[in-house]
Amino acid sequence: MKAVAGKIPFEIEEIRKDFPILKREVNGHPLVYMDNAATSQTPQQVIDAIVDYYSNYNSNIHRGVHTLSQEATDKYEAARKKVQDHFNAAHSYEIIFTSGTTHGINLVASGFASLLKEGDEILVSALEHHSNIVPWQMLTAKTGSILKVIPMNQDGELVMEDFYRLLSNKTRIVFINHVSNALGTVNPIEEIIKAAHEKGAAVLVDGAQAAPHIKADVQALDVDFYVASAHKMCGPTGVGVLYGKEEWLKKLPPYQGGGEMIATVTFEKTTYADLPHKFEAGTPNICGGIAFGAALDYMNSIGFDNIAAYEKQLLDYGTEKLLEIPGVRIYGISRKKTAVISFNIEGIHPYDIGTIIDKLGIAVRTGHHCAQPIMDYYGIPGTVRASFSFYNTTEEIDKFIEAVKRAKTMLS
Ligand SMILES: *Cc1c(COP(=O)(O)O)cnc(C)c1O
């Protein structure tokens, strides 16, 4: 198996050996995994970190004097430092471990309930995942604030003139994803953050879909909040990160009450722990946090520039091949996009394509991808979404294209 024709930024065969799951068969065919935008696969290095934790030092953190507890605490805090370095946060206490992107967004949205008043405005984009829509709707219901939506265009990009029209001195916070999970569009977050700050509004960037492909520098971006999930970047499920600027994290009230997040407790009054513990009530996903650190080590050892260059080749190759099939329409054709191809074939339901190609070992996602407003905009029930990672190959894309052609023949 060879990598994409032209330059090979890294040894794809060696990389694939790191992922045990890529050796398995599905329905009698070698697995072709192209559902990376939903969750990524796990390299042996991360699996080893999980096994090591439970085999050697499984223990609760931060409160034990015994050796195991100290080892677990050290490793967990070292992982926090890895996340800090990865996103270039100024302080490790600006890194809050969460259960994932959804948790991070809810934490911030719920905190803003105490900062917003009636008539304040919240800007959200038409390209959002449901987890970056629903928490804000809940917030408007609580505070009487108003949700405004930055519209999208046929290419799957935000209409920036409308963003500037909607942004005002009443805007308190802007919620935007860095990359759309349904279409792969990379949004101009640098420009949005700058303009929002000029109006005194905060910005939360949902980085769930960007983090596997683009290394965000939160200080260079000057973003107020950035959230991501480990499971989309070679780590385990149930753990993620909320980066928040110190000033904001100090302003927001705690999200949950419990152990770990307090300084002192009496029945009359409780004082809260310092950052980051103020936002980390209860026993966290200790193993998950440590494995997240291992996943970042793994991805950084390959290099995000290499990953981006290679995935761009896969995206271009897959797009070209797919468009050779008559009746295919690709949704989301921004010039700036990650390796996601969302498409339909005229007259065929996306679900039927997904079902048939699964019989050939190919894993793609079908449906609305938790982004119903985007599907409504295009007037479709959903799409077939193939999303590539740095461990996919052009040979796999060829198999995927053959399978789609077969499905088309069977269904038309
Ligand atoms: C996956 C995803 C989410 C939700 O992430 P969870 O890990 O399910 O919390 C939110 N936004 C975007 C853009 C996503 O891709």
Automatic annotation (TrEMBL):
Catalytic activity: (sulfur carrier)-H + L-cysteine = (sulfur carrier)-SH + L-alanine
One Pfam short name: Aminotran_5
Family: Belongs to the class-V pyridoxal-phosphate-dependent aminotransferase family. Csd subfamily.
Described purpose of this protein according to its UniProt entry: Catalyzes the removal of elemental sulfur and selenium atoms from L-cysteine, L-cystine, L-selenocysteine, and L-selenocystine to produce L-alanine.
Transmembrane parts of this sequence: none
Aminotransferase class V domain segment(s): 32-400
GO molecular function: cysteine desulfurase activity; pyridoxal phosphate binding
Cofactor(s) the protein needs: pyridoxal 5'-phosphate
Keywords carried by this UniProt record: Pyridoxal phosphate, Transferase
Gene Ontology annotations of biological process type: cysteine metabolic process
Gene source species: Antarcticibacterium flavum
Protein name, entry field: Cysteine desulfurase
Enzyme Commission (EC) number: 2.8.1.7
Tree of life domain: Bacteria
